[in-house]
Amino acid sequence: MSKFLDRFRYFKQKGETFADGHGQLLETNRDWEDGYRQRWQHDKIVRSTHGVNCTGSCSWKIYVKNGLVTWETQQTDYPRTRPDMPNHEPRGCPRGASYSWYLYSANRLKYPLMRKRLMKMWREAKKLHRDPVEAWASIIEDADKAKSFKQARGRGGFVRSSWQEVNELIAASNVYTVKTYGPDRIAGFSPIPAMSMVSYASGARYLSLIGGTCLSFYDWYCDLPPASPQTWGEQTDVPESADWYNSSYIIAWGSNVPQTRTPDAHFFTEVRYKGTKTVAVTPDYAEIAKLCDLWLAPKQGTDAAMALAMGHVMLREFHLDNPRQYFTDYVRRYTDMPMLVMLEERDGYYAAGRMLRAADLVDSLGQENNPEWKTVAINSNGEMVAPNGSIGFRWGEKGKWNLEQRDGTTGAETELQLSLLGSQDEIADVGFPYFGGEGSEYFNHVALDNVLLHKLPAKRLQLANGSSALVTTVYDLTMANYGLERGLNDENCAASYDDTKAYTPAWAEQITGVPRAQIIRIAREFADNADKTHGRSMIIVGAGLNHWYHLDMNYRGLINMLVFCGCVGQSGGGWAHYVGQEKLRPQTGWQPLAFALDWQRPARHMNSTSYFYNHSSQWRYETVTAEELLSPMVDKSRYSGHLIDFNVRAERMGWLPSAPQLGTNPLYIAREAEKAGMTPVDYTVKSLKEGSIRFAAEQPENGKNHPRNLFIWRSNLLGSSGKGHEYMLKYLLGTEHGIQGLDLGKQGGVKPEEVEWRDNGLDGKLDLVVTLDFRLSSTCLYSDIVLPTATWYEKDDMNTSDMHPFIHPLSAAVDPAWESKSDWEIYKGIAKKFSEVCVGHLGKETDVVTLPIQHDSAAELAQPLDVKDWKKGECDLIPGKTAPHIMTVERDYPATYERFTSIGPLMEKIGNGGKGIAWNTQSEMDLLRKLNYTKADGPAKGQPMLNTAIDAAEMILTLAPETNGQVAVKAWAALSEFTGRDHTHLATNKEEEKIRFRDIQAQPRKIISSPTWSGLEDEHVSYNAGYTNVHELIPWRTLSGRQQLYQDHQWMRDFGESLLVYRPPIDTRSVKAVMGRKSNGNPEKALNFLTPHQKWGIHSTYSDNLLMLTLSRGGPIVWMSETDAKDLGIEDNDWIEVFNSNGALTARAVVSQRVPAGMTMMYHAQERIVNLPGSEITQQRGGIHNSVTRITPKPTHMIGGYAQLAYGFNYYGTVGSNRDEFVVVRKMKNINWLDGEGNDQVQESVK
């Protein structure tokens, strides 16, 4: 390299020659080599990871030189697996390898920012008002001032502020809101604690201490599969990816493993070397298809139809024609199939009703405790029994909540009958709803009667009330529902797979487009493998199925297949659902920290889907009615009204939470109750009955019942997950938006009955939006205050995932750059300022809190039989029974900071626990006093300190059974009292193990088995969900205590979903009203709009990263088929516009043969901050993927107070589905970058 200049005539070095001129002595400088040597030199390596909700949870080496992060590489020191298993490493992906770019890029947020208009008003107000709260009031109570800065949201205008100034404004706004409207008018959104659990806890702890509302995320993201709570009473529990290697047949159904589970994909490819067959099921030719032996491509949204057909084959060949002993024993012991169901008389036929309970029979079968919650079966001797394990045994008595095959009354061993066929009293004609003949014009239908009559064996029983009733079993109902002929001359059952009857392979071929031969083959192979291996057949599934409106039907279809084949709870088998990084393994240690349960209980939680549906006024544009969702067998007049009416009814019956909760400041209620000489609870009950206090959701737009302050951290709510983006811009933020449709008042739609309608919706509901981030995201652009947070290489935290069994850290490899701070330090600073500012406005206050009926508590037995609404006079208002719990919380507002930075006394007074069990934590608190030291004085004197994020991490690690062996033994002992079986042996070998934060910084540590989860962390078996249910005989937390295939709640039955059915995608009616309305002269076409996860980012993170932009096309893109592109005159890389009544977006077209006609894909989540021109439709900067979506909630997801169908934070509730949406696609004519004159170009000039 030093001689390259010698090639030039006038740049030659002179030097002495030798060897007769054949050699020359030169002085060569080799300093240039130092650059290469020093490129890889570093001062230290620190372990950290990426808190990005990708499920990878990969450990990385962070290289530091001269106090700066220079690069990162993958760690390779995970604890080794068994000799017969591949190790977990390598774990990582290109996205994670590019993260260090962010730290010192122009995208990095360096200083606290405030919107200029707001800052000017704030500083002027401070000059006039010495009290910050009065200064804030002078701004926000002036309608013109408030409107002025709200309208500027999303339009730039940020200026640098200081921590002192922003903290004071935030605190003043919070104090004003608490004092004037109530603490529940303050909310915070942050997702997926597992990815950085201390960072999540920082904001949630502050909000919980002041009485604010923590918004859910798992349901809002539509990562929550409602079928899991419905079937197992579990939010989500799945196998670790290493267990794929134990499988011998894998179907990857709607999960693009190499693209979205990159660090785990090696297990998928490695298991193929063992001979495991792999099958891909995706509508498009995704990357997963290249790794599989067979690819099935059903029409998007029709997966339940194919699953039903596969189930038909499995039941026919492996349960009826040639019953397999393993399958028969499995469904008898571990499912609700033997349980009896009452048949209800209809006009000329029967309908399946609720499950028979012990309380329905004379003397309640000898059951005195909760007989209305104990399911009934017939044993092999023909006797009626209430077998152990149903949820009635869980509460109020001990020792019989187990899956031993015993009569719950006598304790005698018993074998349950699966079918009444052969011992029936009569054959009954039973009706089943059929929805496969309806739906939108864009999907195939098979026209059959909307009520299919099937013949079932039934017995007639005498009931305790003197009447008689016919009963049949869930097994018999299932066989009939799948259309299986059992010698009963059932005209609606199929004689062969070629009959076009529900739900045969021939029927499914017409719906899905998949050849029946392929359906039969895969079903047969899957079941045969499960029979021979005792359950080692697995289905890996993800967002591809879960983001549809009828997502529970899709998932129940797959779950039924697994249950029929005995796969759930067996290593190498089962349901492997992967979406967000939901597995917060040390959950029970984290909850007291996050929700301040160490100081006060309960915390305020809210399901985000209902929250945003209400407060962003998306309900005002709803086009879907309950009538079109109901079963054809029900009297539809009983379910009148708008979808939001169902949500309001669910709130007042205690099924769902509400936020804000009541139509008055909850701090005022205790004061008024004292004046009336009543307790706050009695006063609230009386006022609700009289109507002087109403639920806030009934009057969401009266100016008092909406959120006021919103904190967003660890999230890009407005650039990634915000379904109904344009509605949020208009109604929450009060800024420019792109809504194209008309509200119900203008279009003449069905208006609510329970919710007060106002012709003009309320815009700009949020007074203050505060966002914490390390980069300038779309959400930051719409915020009022932006706080620079530390990156994942600049703070201490912890990370876990469902994909592997380890807990490992985020570590501060370097100090936070510029003026950024960790989330813990930011919220600690806000808490300190709040404690100062609130003096004189707030002191010790009594806060009235409503709490929905909780799953995993005795209250889940609140409403056993029928649905009764107290407001309609059908029952009395009884808190915690027919309505939400009404509770009081004593808040000490000036002590907020002291409480934030210490562990409260409730951990010793009440203890800790989770999922229905509890244990004493005195010894753990003693340890924390030694680890963290104690407060020397003040309101928290003598309590363990939480000064730093590491202190918070130590609290989690010490209190959690997954990281403290002593606690694990106590937790298993607590569960043993319920089951009557000893489970402590699962943790005694780890009793002395206590994982500390420094331990996980040295190496990732494998967690300890805990009853919080249903699998085992063991050296002999990989983690798999349901393992302890099957092998330890611990019941599932459902009505029957078994895997619940039959959902007998009245709403489930009336909406036609007690059993699995095929429900086509709903018609959102969002394209016809706008098609052709604003034509640009180019052809337009309606296409189904899907948003799968992308290759070049994790959600929106990395989407603006220069390295990822360079590898990808660099900006928003939409994939479409060659067929649709040809029809629209679109070529690859053309600018196109995608729009409907919800809004519009612009992007470049990717034309590909891998995409089927009729659908388009915009990979989630591409932000509006990179390479985005203006929209011809809206005349604004083109929107994001959520600009064309709107939430439509499903009433069956609102059910509560009913065993497994009861509310829990992120456990059950309405979900933010979006894949049923259709859009209009067209080629753009003009490209306007909205950045000055002369940039309005025609399409051809920019290609």
From TrEMBL:
It is found in: Cell membrane. One of its GO terms (cellular component) is plasma membrane. It is an enzyme of class 1 (oxidoreductase). Its cofactor is Mo-bis(molybdopterin guanine dinucleotide); [4Fe-4S] cluster. Residues 43-107 form the 4Fe-4S Mo/W bis-MGD-type domain. InterPro entries: Asp_de-COase-like_dom_sf, MopB_CT_Nitrate-R-NarG-like, MoPterin_dinucl-bd_dom, Mopterin_OxRdtase, Mopterin_OxRdtase_4Fe-4S_dom, Mopterin_OxRdtase_prok_CS, MopterinOxRdtase_cofactor_BS, NarG. Its EC number is 1.7.5.1. Belongs to the prokaryotic molybdopterin-containing oxidoreductase family. This is nitrate reductase (quinone). It comes from Salmonella enterica subsp. enterica serovar Macclesfield str. S-1643. The lineage of its organism: Bacteria, Pseudomonadati, Pseudomonadota, Gammaproteobacteria, Enterobacterales.
